[in-house]
Amino acid sequence: MDVQSDQSDQPTQSDRTHDQDQAEIGRHTRTVAGLTLVSRALGLVRDLVTVRVFGDTAVGSAFAAAFAIPNLFRRLFGEGALSAAFIPEYTRLSDDDPRRADAFASLTIGLLALVTGVITIVVELGLLATIMLTADDPDRAYSLKLVMVMLPFMPAICIAAILGGMLQTHNRFGPWAAAPILLNLCIIAAAVPFFLIDEPDPAQWAYPIGIAAIFSAVLQVLWSLLALRGKVRWTRSVRSASTQTRSMLRRMGPVLIGLGTLQLNSLIDTFIAMYPNWIGPSIFGYDYPLDESSNAILFYAQRLYQFPLGVFGIAVATAAFPALSRVAKDSTRFSEMLSRGVRLSLFIGLPASVGLVVVGSPLIRVMYSGFGEGFSETGIQRAGAVLMAYSIAIWAYSLNQLYTRAFYAQDDTKTPMRIAVVMVGVNLALNLILIWYFREAGLAWGTAICAIIQTLWLRASIDRKFIKDNGLSTSPSRSVMLILIGSGLMGVCIWIIASQWALPERWGLQLIRVLSICTIGAAFYAIWSIVWNMQELRWIGARSTERAG
Q: What's the chain's Rg over C-alpha atoms?
């Protein structure tokens, strides 16, 4: 009897696997976040260089639009809809039927190459026809030519992103997290010679920078294929995976809308901001509230709020997605896994929101002016207003990624899609209203407001469908309160320092000031987490199941 009792107290293999999955969320989040931090740091260097090539000018707006459009397809297909529809099925097949998983991966990559290749050709022809029909507008023609140059970036980077999803399924998070480093290095290498020649033309220099981005996408495909050696066997015999592929494609439509809301909103922002460049300075007889530099201001401000989002927020969702897919049928473990992801997202996202609201304007000044050319003084002020509005909702952008993937892990693609459709409409309406009052910042406010509403809506839907019906909860109130209080106190601390600490307006001194304030804020929050023994800090640092407990 005692022996049986002792045996029943021993953890089962399922329990150990679940504990390991929970520990791995923190470990993989740390891996993705660490390498993404390196990539984003190089991305800031890239922006520091390119903003001094283009500035807040019409050329800067044209380059930003040309770069954003193929990247939208990457986020929607490669890292968004297709990836979210592909990974759960590929994860299950990899565990249960590796040969069919290989066929499924081979068929998916082949279809993706075909579809994105056809889209690229059709859009290129459409842009060429538009340029020929509107040759009398040189600014519009220049902008569309840049889009044509950079559009081939789309199929290559989409393929690379799916290969990255496969790596994540095989618990190889590092190689794909490091892949964007290649993009940043290629663009920096192409941009630096601009500063070494006499009187370079920024408009012409945009072309080699765009070609460098395409070259980097090809390198990322090769890098990912190399990292997958031994994990997958590519095959032409793909008929066995036809059922899974059809199922994936059926899920992809709703996923495209549900997970791509932020990207769709960003694209809408780009089109609205590029109206003066592509259409003209007036609309229905009224002066348009934005100008030819608006898209450049919007683009470079977005880059700064996307830094903590990409490093930490998306890292949590990326690390949690395969684990959520594995425990989707176990309500208790699914709830625990989601709770851990929510707490990690808030633990990082809330202080990031508070910190950027406080230091956003000084950061814009350091990053995008001084030490050469860059933004004008007016551009700095406008970009600061944009960044503050976007930063309000960093935590919401993070949770949206996690909550949406939680639905997909449960094979529910329709709920996030319905919510997203409504939010895209609300965002468009807010954009068209708010730009008349806040210019570019109105676009940012519309995106932030919609992100917060979407987060609350997704959370309520998850609670109703998957959590509360099973008598479970994902509401760790004490942890959330500690995160809220710690983030607020940190914000007050760095606001006092920033308001009282003035230095001469020299670029190097201002850089030291911004870095010092950020370091003090991070140290304050870390000490707060240690004093209150917050589990989230241990999860991120844990290297094993035992330490993560």
A: 24
Helix (H) or strand (E) holding 190, with range, is: helix 180-191
**Widest pairwise Cα distance in the chain:** 91
Distance, CA of 24 to CA of 20 (rounded, Å): 6
3-state helix, strand, coil in the chain (%, to 5): 85, 0, 15
Range among 398-407, 450-459, 500-509 rated most confident: 450-459
Q: Structure tokens of 156? A: 């290559």
How far is it, in rounded angstroms, from Cα 394 to Cα 356?
9
Q: Residue 37 phi/psi, 5° resolution?
A: -60, -45
What integer is the mean pLDDT of 211-224?
Answer: 93
3's tokens: 């022996």
Question: How deeply is 110 buried, as exposed, middle or buried, from its count of CB atoms within 10 A (0-12, 13-18, 19+)?
Answer: middle
The more confident residue out of 521 and 371 is 521
Cβ–Cβ < 8 Å for 302, 266 = yes
What per-residue confidence (pLDDT) applies to 470? 56
Structural tokens at position 503: 């230095």
Buried b (16+ CB within 10 A) or exposed e, 430-463: bbeebbeebbbbbbbbbbbbbbbbbbebbbebbb
5 occurs within a structural domain: no
Alpha helices in 235-330 (DSSP H): 242-258, 261-273, 275-278, 294-308, 314-326
532 burial level (CB within 10 Å; 0-12, 13-18, 19+) = middle
Angle in degrees, CA 148, 119, 54, rounded to 5:
25
What is residue 393's DSSP assignment? Answer: T
Q: Please give the model's pTM, rounded to 2 decimal places.
A: 0.80
| pLDDT-based confidence at residue 33 (cuts at 50, 70, 90) | low
- Give the pLDDT band (50/70/90) at residue 77: low
CA distance linking residue 396 with residue 353, whole number of Å: 9
**Quick one: DSSP state of residue 192?**
G
Identify whether 29 is part of a domain.
Answer: yes
Domain tally, the chain: 1
CB-based contact 296:56 (threshold 8 Å)? yes
Short-list 413, 408, 410, 111, CA closest to 241: 111
Q: With 0-12 CB in 10 A as exposed, 13-18 as middle and 19+ as buried, what is 23?
A: buried
For residue 166, the enclosing domain spans 16-280+288-548
11 Cβ contact list (under 8 Å, min separation 6): 19
3-state secondary structure at position 286? strand
Rounded Cα gap, residues 310 and 44, in angstroms: 12
With bands split at pLDDT 50, 70 and 90, how would you rate the model's confidence at 150? very high
Could you write out the three-class secondary structure of 429-471? HHHHHHHHHHCHHHHHHHHHHHHHHHHHHHHHHHHHHHHHHHC
Tell me, yes or no, whether 10 lies in a domain: no
- pLDDT higher than threshold 90 for residue 124: yes
Classified as helix, coil or strand, 472 is: coil
Residue with tokens 């009792």, as numbered in its chain: 5
Q: What is the rounded distance in angstroms from the CA atom of residue 475 to the CA atom of residue 22? A: 17
Q: Is residue 8 part of a domain?
A: no
